Amino acid sequence: MHLITTLFYLPLVAAGCRTVKFIKEEGVALQNHVIKTVSDSKPISCGWQCADTPLCFSMNVRRLPNGRVTCELNNSSKTADQQNLILSPGSQYHQLAEIERCTADQCIYKDALPDDWYRVGSKLFKLFHDRKTWGQARQFCQSIGGDLLSINREDENKFAFQLLNQIKPNIAGTSGVNSLFFIIGKDVIGHWFLDGTDVDVSLFNGARYKEESSRSAKALYLDGQFAYATTPAVNFLSISFTLVSWVKLEDPVRSPSTIYGYWKNPNLFRFTAFLGDKLQFEFQNRDAQGGFQDKIDIRGGNPNKEIWFNAAAVWDKTMNKAYLYLNGREVGTSDGPSGFDPTEFKYTFYDIGLKRDGNHTMKGYLRNLMIVRSALTGEEILRMKDLNNEAFAGAWIGLNDLRTEGDYHWPDGSQVTYEKWHPNEPNNAYEYQNCVQMRISDGTWDDASCGKRLPFLCEKKH
Ligand SMILES: [Ca+2]
Ligand SMILES: [Ca+2]
């Protein structure tokens, strides 16, 4: 029934490819995938449009009585959706086809494949809409025999950006109904789920991710002996911030139990739970030589052992006020000394579970440690539990500088020869951005905190 003939060749100079071939089938058309209908004097002009439209993979062409043609550009092909190839007298189905003279790497050749995979040159791409941290996303891509996407050419970036356009980010509309989540999504400085998927948390002395019975999910477990963990240092003390984590202290409780901090000479900050007693947040302002100037020391609350609790420390720089929250309830507040302006010191890591000056370690579990760049209320802190509402503005690609600051690599080991940074990126904001997202708004790149949960792009080699 289907007579297949070579129809025409297009020179595609821009893609470094001399020609590309469309294959024609008479009397059939692909239905349900039309993204655009164009009318032109000859099929070859439609073919140009299809080749130039990243998500066009085939066309339905019909001749009009006046000699012109109409072409329906399809965002799929019979490779991906054979069932929608229907009999259609008078139509021709045209599909981009590979040509022998180009190697796949030089060609614009592309095709839609089953299960939402797309082939572009030698790579298979797929956008996953569910949201994962960079580490989770990479694990997932590897589990299906691929990796996070590496981008080596402009047409690959263009194509990935077109896939991203399918995402409707849940960022705030003009109504402001969702504005809390916009703030959180935009201003997450650091986020560690502490479930084993964080790519930049280091474990020491037997610290491990352990299934915790009340939640049947993994959390960071510290044994109260010597175990602790570290994150890279994050530059956040000189701005308004909210530091929040879920904690479960185990009996017998080690006291003090540092949740997060860096507490060694010169002391910097610590967020601590004490035995059956209180939460404490302490941070300091020091001069350039490290000499003590002022500090905030705020205590309150009565966290229980053997029960998960939500602990948050908030610094509102504008109001010069600090707050402690236990399970979203304010349990302490303190005004800052006048002119209080904590300085950051150039440490390279901060501690989870360790008070470094006395080697005090926590006995218990921690999860979902997060630093947000704004002073949140207790209600807002508790609403952060629903992380599906975290706003986002991009999707993960594979580029990262996890190994050496500023030295970017692709997961497939390829050299960074092509770049598409947004202006003023990468900026390693808060001195803590090591994973790269492609922005949904324009397809440019921005380094971000690896713990953000974003949609992501996987690749597989053809
Ligand atoms: Ca970085
Ligand atoms: Ca950035």
From TrEMBL:
Keywords, sorted A to Z: Disulfide bond, Signal
Pfam families: Laminin_G_3 (PF13385), Lectin_C (PF00059)
InterPro entries named in the record: C-type_lectin-like, C-type_lectin-like/link_sf, C-type_lectin/snaclec_domain, C-type_lectin_CS, ConA-like_dom_sf, CTDL_fold
Domain C-type lectin: 369-459
Gene3D superfamilies: 2.60.120.200, Mannose-Binding Protein A, subunit A
Keyword Protein transport tagged: no
Signal peptide start-end: 1-16
Protein name per Swiss-Prot or TrEMBL: C-type lectin domain-containing protein
Organism this protein belongs to: Pocillopora meandrina
